[in-house]
């Protein structure tokens, strides 16, 4: 290959305004590919270079080349999913780099790395056919423009003029082209002209362009500030000291030097969800905990999530973090706080600081509502109130206030000048009218950074075209050639699946049989999704972008089209299905002798429900829904399965596996009515057995792929807990005379077991302690083996050295990647079938560590996002709770049934007692009238006592006391309807109440209250579990259930078991 070297020099202004000359050696290559499906060469020029990169589509009507002016101002338009087939020239990227506009750079990179966008990065600056040398006295802008024109002309010729090449520019027009370029059909247009011509009906794009036109971006402000150095800058600063007058940020290199020397501290700014006036960053080992940042002035325009540099304030302003719960605290935030505050609750004096500068902005799209009084005032600058209360109000310019006044809208922050109380942003799009179901769902998705199109649009045409046929007339049948390549288990193995009722997407099935030589063969069979979804097909790209199936209470957003997820991949009963099977041969003590991995064909004997399998396990003679002979056939395998997996579970427990609380709830749906019920998940023995089988499969696969891919296996690890996070739990447990040792998973498991032992009659307390332990743990995440040392692969919660996600390929993209890795491993040791060898050609994905790490990050984000969204759901009403924290103005109550936590206030904002009358009367209707003659004495962290005048003894609320609370809906315009808690009384079984007020006086009221409750709710007695389980139903259809349900969303917990 011939390469030419040239030298490329330019002047660069540093952030401190020094001018430096940079010289770059420049290598020119002759072989840069066009990356278009329309390539006119045979073979296409991209084949030589990259196997799996995104290509510009052959079906496009034009290709788009944006220039720097468009990228700077209208990047967000380019980011909209409507636009595709962009050619991002290296010229643009180099220019962004040179001007330190790394955020813009990264966002553009994201566009080209999303395969659905069909957009490419084109290395024009190192390509001999497109390189443009700078002419003497030519400005940088002009040279860049010529370079882009050259790119456009090159594409035009290379693709034989098959489609128009558009140059997008705000600075140049058609008349800036050479006559030759013009004559071959290259078109220059502005963003407005482009949208008018190609997207005339797309209101979203036009509105967005309108709001971006006037936006002032932070980058522009910074450049402005750099330009106005010295006295001019000082003058400007002075003249702008209006209120609130934030301080300018220090220059980047000054901040950097300060952090290096230890004078300043760098960290991610977190705003306390329970008290928004307080934010903090982790001060690292030198500070030994958090640095508090109190008030807006010290926060200095930093927004939750920004990476900031902080300077400590003088020691006399250090303070104890506020202990009161703020009054607009909602339950979701309170729940989130459990995890945060565990680490941060402190009665010690903490250092305080102020923000000197922002290293990285972490602004995202926010769902917001127009502030109500803005509507009367008119004018076109509005204040919008983000749904997430820790985000400040955002100023937005919009022409027609009334049009969006009752809508949920998406806004983005652009800049926050020192003179402005609130950040400036722009309107992006409307999600629809407030409190409408579809709007609220879209809002949840935007807030969790899940693409709205996943919710609103189905799968693309292109992806549906790839689907195999499966209709009534022509049902899908296994291909006979493919059948021959697979191990056939249809006649030899009794395979069955165990799932919740009405499960459509059955990922996994099981089998177990005794072999003649006294050994036992255990099988886990997983849907062979990787056979149907080949890498880099349209379906694969969409699945990757979706990342996971998102389950909301009454609907789900699939990762794969229904024909795969519900039918052809789903391991349904009595039909032939392709599977990837793992079969362990076990000796008589159930030690693993050997493990077989491979592709199989199965025919499941039965789609069992958990309930049915549990009944078989309990020895029931007949089971509803199973015919006699089937029950007979399945009983023995179920019993054997239980026996085997109990042994495996016991072994894992001996190694320190944790039994934690998941606080998972499930929703009962009624056709056409939405959610009408919420019930806690109550794991039965059979759940744990199935889960153990999946854990075994996942860990066996993890070990297998690690053997073959030491540097690039996709594993899932769960790191050791962070010491600080356990402090609160330790304290809480200590108040009951318990000790929690979390030095190893084994010791933690032992301490939790001993708590459970000592308090075996107090299930709520045990549940609270376990939940606190769960939340104090680190989160599990995906890793690529190359990025970590082997001693860091460990899964702490499950007590396993290797773990991965393999068993849910229909619902999680990570599992699909792992399937491909496993298939490639097997292929390495056996003769390649054509189909497998095709896959291994694409193993470049796994071998490319950086790429896999990106994918890991993406999956981590998506998994968390979908978990949060799942919890965005709720229901009623009167419940038992446990006091989990005492605060200066009330306490936080943990409700084990829903796994949520919320504030109960005993003092109002002015410090007056607000102790509900219901505490005395037991009447739940009286929870918002207050006892007038009482005094409170509060002594955190242990007790609050309420002295009612005339009563001999105070009512004392202590940590871990049980209370009855009422969950109610609060209607809100700006925010979602929220749930709040009020205190009804002490738990009946709690002796304190009788002791305090006198049994005889209270009993009638309590009984009255009970009767009331019985009328409102149906009670189901679930005899099997030996527990009285209440199944609550709402009395009226509540169509704002989504608003309510949202409040459960923050209880994201590390996964358990199969997680
Ligand atoms: Zn080509």
From TrEMBL:
Family matches, as Gene3D superfamilies: 2.40.50.690, 2.40.50.700, 5'-nuclease, Nucleic acid-binding proteins
Enzymatic class: hydrolase
Documented EC number(s): 3.1.13.1
Occurrences of domain RNB (ranges): 486-828
KW Electron transport (keyword) present: no
Gene Ontology BP terms: nuclear-transcribed mRNA catabolic process; rRNA catabolic process; rRNA processing
Stated family: Belongs to the RNR ribonuclease family.
Name used for this protein in its record: DIS3-like exonuclease 1
